[in-house]
Amino acid sequence: LRHLVLVLGDQLDRGSAAFDDFDPATDAVWMAEVAHEATQVWSTQPRIAVFLAAMRAFRDELRARGWTVHYRALDEHPHPTLEAALAADLAALRPAKVLAVKPGEWRLAQSLPAICRETGVAWAERPDRHFYCDADDFEAWAGKRREFRLELFYRWLRKREGVLMDGKEPVGGQWNFDAANRGSFDRRGPGLLPAPRAFPPDERTRGVLALVATRFASHPGRLDGFDWPLDPAQARAALDDFIRHRLPLFGRYQDAMWEGEPWLYHSRLSVALNLKLLDPREVVQAAVRAWEQGHAPIEAVEGFVRQVLGWREFVRGLYWKRMPGFLDDNALGAEEPLPAFFWTGDTDLACLRDALRQTLDLGYAHHIQRLMVLGLFALLLGVRPRAIHEWFLAVYVDAVEWVELPNVLGMSQYADGGRMVSKPYAASGKYIQRMSNHCAGCRFRPDEATGPRACPYTTLYWDFLARHEARFARHPRTALQWTHLGRKPSEELAAIRRQATELRAALAAGSRPEHGPKR
Ligand code: FAD
Which residues is 98 bridged to in the sheet? Predict the structure, then answer.
């Protein structure tokens, strides 16, 4: 055996550099399903199923080409971790070399080459061509910067790639149509929404669903509506469906929320992108073409391109620049445990309940639910960053650490002290009221900070401002927000802070670590 080509669950890229010189006569592919990847954080059933089903589809496609794939299915080997499974197979197969695309996760990028070293097999790494920007490109852009801002990175990459450019200028005369991306629905709600194209499980996927339901029965999540795209053809069909039916209103309603409506105008493409079933260039080009053909307005297309070419590449660059230290960031000194209801959705707060139940059931929530409902609650409460990071990594079908970690620790929790965003995403219940219909059916009032009907977001918001006054009150980007604190009468503020303390104590008393990740 010349090359054993190692393929991880999030490397299902048919055009991977690891296959460039693949010779079926002398080379073989190696893939393994291991329990540790599902249990190191308490993964939801949909998340586990997405990975296993897409891996098996990839395996079968390679085998149909006549390639040898040494595939270790979950229930067919005794090894708990990827490292143990690899070590056992290296001893048995004795390849001259293990070939792999650089793992997307810092932990595996250390441990897998180490296993090869220990077993005396050469490890050769190839670049991940899936992304627009590799670590060296990001490093060149970052230079000596200590703080990193999406807007600057995004403009640089858009110019370099010539995306939505008119010579040296952005099309439409503006880099950013963010102001047109903050619409909410009126009282009548979103009306008839275009249902996203569904991909009902085939026989192979049904086998995976049965396996997950038995083997991971105690994990949260439902599998009955499982319909994610699992191979490149399905991923392209999902892209096409989004471009046709949802992209035109994506921009306007990007930040809006509506009770019981998980998808709205979002693309649902993060899974296909993160598993590398879909090339981000193809996604960006399809959106740009829709604008060129007059099918979608610029604020929708620019807003979407900003997410895929901007945020997605930006967070990956930051991940590799800042790991492993990123994981230990806790600039705001947050030490509270994660409330138990994050694992059950069992809370009276309507917005939080909707976002949590949907997350746990489907493994999906859109960006504003993640940032301004779930992340916001943890930020205001002061949850230990590591605990909220592990929760986010466990629950979403699209959760892979390089994208989850910077979004959680940097963007939503400000744990990096502002290296990634210029101010904390702190808001009261009134923001949620403006962007959704949740408050209408909730027993709490977003404009009340004390008393039995006080919205916990609003109570905790004022408490957050007070707790972090020294840090933010004189900072040019945050001073304005903190001036409101100075206008609160001191007795009122004292009452708010008492209520916040009681809330924190009650939530901490109810937190049940046994539901949390098993580390
Ligand atoms: P759309 O709203 O349709 O957006 C289109 C695409 O843009 C997405 O598919 C995604 O690939 C990309 N994108 C959008 N926002 C971001 C972002 N902030 N960072 C990187 N890419 C982005 N995304 C993940 O893929 N995995 C995660 O584990 C993850 N965790 C998150 C945790 C928090 C606290 C926050 C605030 C955001 C997180 N995101 C994560 C980013 C974003 O919320 C999801 O990518 C998005 O909700 C996926 O749904 P969609 O495909 O319908 O996205």
Answer: 4, 123
Kindly state the tokens that stand for 138.
Answer: 């990001």
Q: How far apart are CA 156 and CA 216, in angstroms?
A: 44
Pocket test for ligand 1, best of 242, 407, 412, 425 (most atoms within 8 A of CB): 407
Q: Are domains 3-126 and 340-515 of this chain identical in fold?
A: no
Cα-to-centroid distance, 69 and ligand 1 (Å): 32
Assess whether the C-beta atom of 311 lies below 6 angstroms from ligand 1: yes
Q: Write down the CATH number for the domain with range 135-194+246-322.
A: 1.25.40.80
Residue 132 and residue 313 in contact, taking contact as beta carbons nearer than 8 Å:
yes
Give me 102's structure tokens. 């650089």
Cβ–ligand 1 distance for 267 under 6 Å, the answer: yes
| Residues in CB range of 193: below 8 A, 6 or more apart | 261, 263, 264, 265
Q: Rounded distance, CA 275 to CA 9, Å?
A: 7
The best mutation among 130, 307, 313 to test binding of ligand 1, ranked by most ligand atoms within 8 Å of the C-beta, falls on 307
CATH number of 340-515: 1.10.579.10
C-alpha 300: how far from its chain's center? 21
- What is the per-residue pLDDT across 77-114, written as a single tens digit (0 to 9) for each? 999 999 999 999 999 999 999 999 999 999 999 999 99
> Rounded to the nearest whole angstrom, what is the distance from the C-alpha of residue 308 to the centroid of ligand 1?
9
**Rg of the chain over CA atoms, in angstroms?**
23
Q: Kindly indicate the confidence band of residue 510, based on its pLDDT and cuts at 50, 70 and 90.
A: confident
- CA-to-CA distance for 268 and 85, rounded, in angstroms? 32
Topology adopted by domain 3-126: Rossmann fold (3.40.50)
* Cα–Cα nearest to 156, from 165, 366, 343, 365: 165
- Write out pLDDT tens, residues 48-80: 999 999 999 999 999 999 999 999 999 999 999
Q: Measured from the CB, is residue 268 less than 6 Å from ligand 1?
A: yes
pLDDT tens, residue by residue, 257-290:
999 999 999 999 999 999 999 999 999 999 999 9
How far apart (Å, rounded) are the C-alpha atoms in residues 299 and 302?
5
Going 371 to 376 to 378 to 382, the CA torsion angle's sign is positive
Domain ranges of the chain: 3-126, 135-194+246-322, 340-515
**CB of 375 closer than 8 Å to CB of 78:** no
Whether ligand 1 lies within 6 angstroms of the CB of 286 is answered as: no
* Pairing outcome for strands 165-166 and 169-170: antiparallel
Side-chain half-sphere exposure of 512, counting CA atoms within 13 A: 8
- The reply to whether ligand 1 has any atom less than 6 angstroms from the CB of 414 is no
The reply to whether omega before 220 is within 30° of 0 (cis) is no
